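Exercise 7. Given the encoded structure of a 84-residue chain, write a plausible sequence.
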């Protein structure tokens, strides 16, 4: 995350996108980590994700610029920085 709005909106999270279509979404809460294992694919400027344990496709607009990922979902914009 790179901005206070994102931290306030979703807390301390990381997302790992794999080349084979898996999305690992970790939510850190103090010493505890909650992990969601999702699948994803991109279509033009949209990431389509799904959680196999609770199937429901969600579409999120995205753009990548200067190693920053901007996600827009339901009118809320969140910005993430790429970790190397």
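Solution.
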């Amino acid at each position: 995350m790179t901005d206070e709005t994102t931290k306030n909106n979703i807390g301390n999270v990381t997302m790992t996108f794999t080349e084979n279509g898996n999305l690992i979404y970790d939510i850190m809460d103090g010493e505890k980590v909650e992990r969601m294992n999702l699948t994803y694919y991109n279509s033009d400027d949209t990431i389509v994700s799904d959680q196999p344990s609770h199937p429901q496709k969600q579409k999120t607009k995205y753009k990548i610029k200067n190693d920053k990922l901007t996600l827009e979902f339901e009118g809320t914009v969140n910005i993430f920085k790429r970790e190397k």
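Remark. The mean pLDDT is 89. Students should compare their own answers with the one above.
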